[in-house]
Amino acid sequence: MREAPVLLLDFDGTSATSNVGMSFIERFSEGDAWKEIDDDYGKGRFGSRRAYELLGPMLGGTPLEWREYIRSHHYLDPGFTALVTEAVKRGWRVEILSDGLDFYIEEMLGEAGVKLPVRAGILGAKEGGAEISTPHMNPECGYCGTCKSSRVEELAAEGREVVFVGDGLSDRCAAPRARRTFAKDLLAAHLREQNLPFEEYETLFDVKRALFGE
């Protein structure tokens, strides 16, 4: 019996309309030291795993304040619920695969009444700040907090057809390993530059139409 296809969705800028993680860090980091970390990350001096190690102790606020901020400032892509609903109805597995943080992902999914498996960094509150752990990193590489390509390879090894949807630099390794890739923004530019196949989209309604028709 053929295994069900799997739809892997990036979160920030893909499932959500904005980079929720970056906005969250800007809002709750105490002081401006986060800007230097973000600059170093952007220049490739280190990856998200190291960035999270440095950023965690700088984050202030409480889980209640975090929750209120997320709910009042960030939104899911208008086609997100329709895409997920249709995929699940057809027997597909759907997972969120993010180099962001579980707290705001779970919060936004819960607000929309959607329950999905999430692989992301784990944000926890502790006295004097916050703590970010990265249980889905690849210890052989250690660059990203969540190794997306490892998950794609795991699923492919199970004989599953993997469809990947993303938009950013943390998606670069995973996208070429999927059976079918949808990309926009930085990810689309990267794949185009490398002459790698992908299908461009603007919203997740476009992905739904491409996969399942109207």
Overall mean pLDDT: 95
Give the number of helices: 10
Poorly predicted runs of 5 or more residues: none
Tell me the helix content.
40-55%
As a percent range, the share of strand residues is: 15-25%
Main structural class: alpha/beta
Major sheet: size, sense and barrel closure?
Answer: 7 strands, mixed
CATH class: Alpha Beta
Number of strands: 7
Written overview of the protein:
- By secondary structure, the protein is of the alpha/beta class.
- The chain has a single domain, classed as Rossmann fold (3-Layer(aba) Sandwich).
- 43% of the residues lie in helices and 18% in strands.
- It has helices at residues 11-15, 20-28, 33-42, 48-55, 63-73, 80-89, 102-112, 148-157, 185-193, 204-212, and strands spanning 6-9, 93-101, 118-126, 129-133, 162-166, 180-183, 199-200.
- Strands 4-3-2-1-5-6-7 form a seven-stranded mixed sheet, sandwiched between helices.
- The chain is globular.
